């Protein structure tokens, strides 16, 4: 069987290419299952901007947010919630309500609410348009009295710490200038001579 070693090499190389190609196809199919509209019209990205998982009693909730900015400056967000019973692995198929709240230093204001009677393909999907960047809270109400909370950052908002820092700097500058003015008035000028 001398002289046929090159055939074994070609077959081995072909097998490696097939395996690598299958892994790529499988990965792409997985992304499409999680986010079926990914890349449709160049809109939603493949990877979520935020992902969280939380356990509430016997349920496991997954939250994923996909977002992109339109040319007009509006942010489009697709939020996906899945709920699974941890005891048997079955998806929760009952009613669910998603409430999005605007978060600020002093209060939370409701932006919108989306009720669901049942999931679509075991997922509760919410689409929303935001006219500016910001920090939000997503509250999920399900199974009568159960609640889960997730944070949602739309875009890249400036931090509230930056605002506090700026206000502190302005306040300290004003205090310094007032103090300097008072100390100058207290100095006594003695004429020369």
End-to-end C-alpha gap: 119 Å
The coarse overall form would be elongated
Overall mean pLDDT stands at 79
In the CATH hierarchy, what is the superfamily of the domain at 33-154?
A: Macroglobulin (MG2) domain
How many strands appear in the DSSP assignment? 8
As laid out across the biggest beta sheet, the strand order is 1-2-3-6
- Share in helix: 25-40%
The profile of the biggest β sheet is:
4 strands, antiparallel
CATH topology of the domain at 33-154: Immunoglobulin-like
User: Helix and strand string, N-terminal first?
Assistant: HEEEEEEEEH
Please give the CATH architecture of the domain at 33-154. Answer: Sandwich
Percent range for β-strand residues: 35-45%
Describe the structure.
By secondary structure, this protein is α+β, with helices and mostly antiparallel strands. The protein has a domain at about 35-155: Immunoglobulin-like (Sandwich), CATH 2.60.40. Helices cover about 30% and strands about 35% of the residues. The chain contains 2 helices and 8 strands; from the N terminus they run αββββββββα. Strands 1-2-3-6 form a 4-stranded antiparallel beta sheet, with no helix packed on it. A 4-stranded antiparallel beta sheet has the order 5-4-7-8, with no helix packed on it. A hairpin with a 3-residue loop joins strand 7 (about 135-140) and strand 8. The longest helix has 30 residues, at about 5-35. The chain starts with a helix and ends in a 7-residue tail after the last helix.
